[in-house]
Specification:
With 477 residues, the chain is α/β, with parallel strands linked by helices. It folds into 3 domains: 3-86, SRP54, nucleotide-binding domain (Four Helix Bundle (Hemerythrin (Met), subunit A), Up-down Bundle), CATH 1.20.120.140; 101-285, P-loop containing nucleotide triphosphate hydrolases (Rossmann fold), CATH 3.40.50.300; 301-476, Signal recognition particle, SRP54 subunit, M-domain (434 Repressor (Amino-terminal Domain)), CATH 1.10.260. The chain is 58% helix and 9% strand. It has helices at residues 3-18, 24-40, 45-61, 70-86, 113-125, 143-154, 167-180, 198-211, 226-238, 256-265, 286-293, 299-309, 312-324, 328-340, 344-349, 354-357, 367-376, 380-384, 391-401, 405-425, 430-446, 460-476; strands spanning 101-107, 131-136, 158-159, 185-190, 215-221, 243-247, 269-273, 281-283. An 8-stranded mixed sheet has the order 3-2-4-1-5-6-7-8, with helices on both faces.
């Protein structure tokens, strides 16, 4: 996400850094580049003007031209302005007592509204609540079936009245059902259209009036850019919207909707959909998104993703294994957890400084799947003792996994490097460990040698010294 915008911003700051002397003209020139970058990212023209005028005013007011590091001052000003543009945001849902808390979901067809109902239900369950989803979209064929399937996947009941044409009555009856079955949150999925029309607006306004929802969320497709923002504006004219949910956020490389939505609609973005899986719903944090846009990473987001995969007991066990040395079973487990956190590319971008290091990097997201197939073709003994995997075993493993013999060799070499690196990482700080672990993901995904750069205490030299010591021990035996 934001790939084009991130690249353009970094280019602007690099130009400032390379100037022998910074003048007011240089700063104005930089802001012209920023303006062009934002327009190309499909940010609303009104938002572009406000943003650039504010940054320029603050930049000149901060006397950027008199500082020793003008590029750093500009990054700080732009970062703060991006946060102001998209925030403030409170990602918490205001649950009421006694319940139920009623959440009305609105949006056009194709925006991902029904799937987002399921994602939101799963998120709410993680907060200790007992949601009920309501199939009040009576216009779209199979909408009820889709919601029931999603409900089964997340373990949430779905209230339906098949053959009914009155969405208002269905919504009202669902509240009675929620109270009867002790459900403390009700998520109402409403009808959408391919475009906004009077019938759509009248129906959803009637539903809103009938059930008096605690929160009204508008689901919009981030990939539609300014169209998404305009849709939000029109819905807000008829409904008392509380917040927006942007879907397909991971596919939106431009970022126009995220940067324009708050200013144009006056409503904050509360959640973002970052994948197709039902757990792929994230709270929206303006400061973290600003950091990602400027290539500064999102350490807090990365730690939260890691914490979702590891509980305290698992973390202690992993720490012990790291200090003693991992085997291929451990290696396989770590790869699976890495895959659960999202794409390798997106995870890497959350580490500060990694965005620039990834320039021109070709990441094969399927490499982890190939590695998994190879390890699963090994015997338990081979997984515990990869040093016994000689030529004949490699040929058998390659045949069993549908891989080449060289792929098996590449996996074993990668594993040995990671095992050595993990031993050193067992004594690292959390920040350095995150950097090293992310670079491990890069290595595993590309099948190349480990490269450790600034901030980590592990280097190629350290690893090579370990290899030399091993070779000397073998010769002495």
């Amino acid at each position: 996400m934001f790939e084009g915008l991130t690249k353009r911003f970094q280019g602007v700051f690099h130009q400032l850094r390379g100037r022998g002397k910074i003048t007011e003209g240089n700063v104005e020139e930089a802001m012209r580049e920023v303006r062009t970058a934002l327009l190309e990212a499909d940010v609303h023209v009104q938002v572009v003007k406000q943003f650039c005028d504010s940054v320029l005013q603050k930049a000149l007011g901060a006397k950027v031209i008199e500082t020793l590091h003008p590029d750093q001052v500009m990054v700080k000003i732009v970062h703060d302005e991006l946060i102001r543009l998209m925030g403030p945001v409170d990602p918490r849902i205001p649950f009421i007592t006694p319940g139920p808390t009623i959440i009305l979901m609105a949006g056009l067809q194709g925006s991902g509204k029904t799937t987002t109902c399921g994602k939101l239900a799963k998120y709410i369950m993680s907060k200790g609540k007992r949601p009920l989803m309501v199939a009040a979209d009576l216009k779209r064929p199979a909408a009820i079936d889709q919601l029931e399937v999603i409900g089964g996947q997340v373990g949430v009941p779905v209230y339906t009245e098949r053959g009914h044409a009155n969405a208002v009555k269905v919504a009202r009856n669902s509240i009675i059902e929620a109270r009867r079955t002790d459900r403390d949150v009700v998520i109402v999925d409403t009808a959408g259209r391919l475009a906004i029309d009077e019938e759509l607006m009248n129906e959803i306004a009637q539903v809103e009036q009938a059930i008096n929802p605690t929160q009204v969320y508008l689901v919009i497709d981030a990939m539609t850019g300014q169209d998404a923002v305009n849709t939000g504006k029109r819905f807000n004219e008829r409904l008392e919207l509380d917040a927006l949910i942007l879907t397909k956020f991971d596919s939106d490389t431009r970022g126009g909707a995220a940067l324009s939505a708050k200013v144009i609609t006056g409503k904050p973005i509360k959640f973002i959909g970052i994948g197709e899986k039902l757990e792929n719903l994230e709270e929206f944090h303006a400061d973290r998104i600003a950091g990602r846009i400027l290539g500064m990473g999102d350490v807090i987001g990365l730690v939260e993703k890691a914490q979702q995969q590891y509980d305290a007991e698992e973390a202690k066990k992993l720490e012990k294994k790291m200090s003693k040395g991992l085997d291929l079973e451990d290696f396989l487990g770590q790869m699976r957890k890495m895959k659960s956190m999202g794409s390798v590319k997106d995870i890497m971008k959350m580490v500060p400084g990694m965005t620039t290091q990834m320039e021109g990097m070709d990441i094969d997201e399927n490499e982890l799947d190939r590695y998994e197939a190879i390890i699963q073709s090994m015997t338990p003994k081979e997984r515990r003792r990869p040093d016994i995997i000689e030529a004949s075993r490699r040929r058998r493993i390659a045949k069993g996994s549908g891989a080449d013999v060289k792929d098996v060799g590449s996996l074993i070499k990668s594993f040995e490097q990671v095992r050595d690196m993990m031993k050193v990482m067992s004594g690292m700080s959390m920040m350095n460990r995150l950097k090293s672990a992310t670079q491990f993901a890069s290595m595993a995904a590309r099948g190349i040698s480990m490269r450790i750069k600034g901030g980590s205490s592990v280097t190629k030299r350290q690893l090579s010294q370990k290899d030399k010591r091993k070779q000397r021990k073998k010769r002495s035996r």
